Amino acid sequence: MRYDLEYYEKMLRLNSSTAKQICDIRWEWVMNLKPKTVLDFGSGVGWFRAWRPENVEVYSHDIGPYPQTRAKLIYYDVMCLWDVFEHIPDFRELKPYFSLTDNVVGTIPLKPDHVSWQDWKHFKPNEHLHYLTKDQLIILFDEYGFKPKNFGYPECPPREDILTFHFQKRVI
């Protein structure tokens, strides 16, 4: 999959109608952590940053062509991975960014047991590189020193089969 301007323009056209609603749901989830600084990793076209609360500074980081701030700080109260995990070829790419925060929140598509892979709307072999279970996500974050804090489905509706998560760095 090429994450070029054509891809991002398509995402804007397809998803603009629900983007504000989804961002509001995500901000409600994030604001429970009372952040002052947020790193939106995999920020795409920048909706999450665009609809941020006034008292939160958001830095956006993506491989895509849209304007973004990049990761500039040495610490963020929260790192967000909204719809990102399934697109990252090698999770080790995240390690330097995980060192910049104590809290990671995000979403992943989670296939229901009763749905076949071919019938599942999030089954996108040329775009999604990984399909994780909740248990696999916990194991992965454990490898990077994080423990699970909260899981839920606040984006469902308007979306389907999307798990929202919060992991917190373990105190050593």
Keywords:
alpha/beta, 4 helices, 172 residues, globular, six-stranded mixed sheet
What can you tell me about this protein's structure?
- This protein is an alpha/beta fold and 172 residues long.
- The protein has a single domain (5-169), classed as 3-Layer(aba) Sandwich (Rossmann fold).
- The chain has helices at residues 5-31, 47-50, 95-98, 134-143, and strands at residues 37-41, 57-61, 78-81, 103-109, 146-152, 162-169.
- The protein has a six-stranded mixed beta sheet, covered by helices on one side.
- Helix 2 links the parallel strand 1 (37-41) and strand 2.
- The longest helix is centred in the first third of the chain and has 27 residues, at 5-31.
- It is globular and about 40 Å long.
- The N and C termini lie far apart (39 Å).
- The mean pLDDT is 89.
Characterize this entry briefly.
This protein is about 25% helix and about 20% strand. The chain has about 170 residues and is an alpha/beta fold.
What are the SSEs and their pairings?
Layout: H1 5-31, E1 37-41, H2 47-50, E2 57-61, E3 78-81, H3 95-98, E4 103-109, H4 134-143, E5 146-152, E6 162-169
Parallel strand pairs: 1-2, 1-3, 3-4
Antiparallel strand pairs: 4-6, 5-6
